[in-house]
Amino acid sequence: MCGIVGYAGRRRAMGILLDSLKRLEYRGYDSAGIAVVGNGLQVYKDKGFIANLEAQLPSLEGTTGLAHTRWATHGPPSKVNAHPHVDCAGRIALAHNGIIENFAELRDRLKEKGHAFRSETDTESLVHLVESHYEGDLEAAVRSALREVRGSYAIAAVSSEEPGIVVGARNESPLVVGVGPDETFLASDVPALLKHTDKVLYMMDREMVVLTPDGAVIKDLEGRPVDREPQRITWTLEDAEKGGFEHFMLKEIFEQPAAIHETLLGRVANLDVNGFFLDGFTSVKLVACGTSYHAALAGKYILEEIAGVPASAELASEYRYSHGPQERPLVILLSQSGETADTLGAAREAKRRGCKTLAICNVIGSSLTREADKTIYTRAGLEIGVAATKTFVTQLVGLYLIALRLGLDRGTLGDEEADRLKDELRSLPRAVQGILNRADDIRALAEKYGDARDIFYIGRHVNYPIAMEGALKLKEISYIHAEAYAAGELKHGPLALLTPQTPVLAVAVRDHTYEKMRSNIGEVNARGSPVVGVGTEGDRELPKFVDDVIWVPELSPVFVPVPVTVAMQLFAYHAARKRGCPIDKPRNLAKSVTVE
Ligand code: F6R
Fold it and tell me: Each residue of 31-44: pLDDT tens digit?
């Protein structure tokens, strides 16, 4: 996730671009850059926040330009990897948000033709590709280039030979156009425009736009004009930063179909997960903290189920000080931030024990990715809400990809079964969207049970760690005391705590544990505690045993945790909202825990 802005008008572009860009800093702040067409093409960029770039800028003349704030996806944060990228002749500058899937192939081809590459980014291949088509018409060159590109993009491009014009395009990454008198804008998101105009045009996939001071013309990639009426935005600036959602957490919950899609992009067909080394291991150890630890625990079941490899999960803070046996498992470290002190300590400990380490991480260039031998990035984008949501489900997606690769490499997974699982993996964004479409039903349940003092969560097998994650979400944002148990454990003690005032959320989907779950729900019924069942759509039995049901779509059991998690996130969110809690910044918590 990055932020881009563009301006074509009659005022000086520099101040407008920087000011608008700051409204997008929530989308990333690894590095920032600006290109203004005035006296030739002037490009400045640097690592770090926009303020850092601003502090070193001379006064730039020119009324056309673009700017970018980066959330790294290919190549660590650095000045050279910062956008905009410039072609060999120094005429064209381009900023991009998204992922060019076939960038390596394009780069090799363009290098052969003599293009000189300076950065490690996927984006740079695009600016050289535009250059290779450029004959004085930027719009035509961008159109030809995009026909050769696979992947997701929102772009802005300018040429020193065509002052007064900004060309934009989008496919699967957001881009909006703003229209004012004598000026036009483009941006990744509405907040960047609101200071200047409330008239916006939303661009659709595979569309291009040409901005000039006189207006914005949208066409499809074939060059056919698209007729689109501007819409008037009535949001305040603060509303707009949250995309119209009340909290970042809710926005991030709703971003999950896109986050899963991005994480899968270009990786499913040949399971290209950073070409890592999965040979020669007899077992896997998954290590992490908090929510990431719940993904690690789910990973144990996922790896065993799909790849048939023995796996175990351990809290990073415990692993660091344990005395492991002599064998050397592959150690997978999971972390959203890549900066969690305990997880970093565990990575060092794993290396000290002679183990190979693989990170699953959301932040490019973070400390963990530098410590680990290899990294698979989740591509959830910047997560602002302190409670992890989209980064957790994309960690699960990373684990599915690893499990499939591992299963095929070890010969424990047949091609046919792998193809079936891959198809289901690709369907996960749709399954999640199905839950989001029913958010109002889950909200009603959360409001019904949100006054409880204690809530229990139970599940079995891979849904046991998901119950733990559901309970953690509820605890941290609503401050309701929540406990998660493997359902079979209730009778070994915790049943003593159940009363008619203790709701129990039970994951009872149609899998090999279903019958046992029903018995466990019976034990709860006998204590008079109300039960919310999370069940498989179409199950006519479950409603007879529970007070309320949250339905999830039918999937192979190993994939069910994804929609179940999303349902639990919504339940926690709405319980917390009803109680008036500060959802994005819960008391006593921080987004990144860099102390032991
Ligand atoms: C809970 C949450 C935390 C983190 C934990 C590890 O919602 O976000 O429990 O999961 O602090 O953080 P990372 O994943 O950055 O290592």
Answer: 899 999 988 999 99
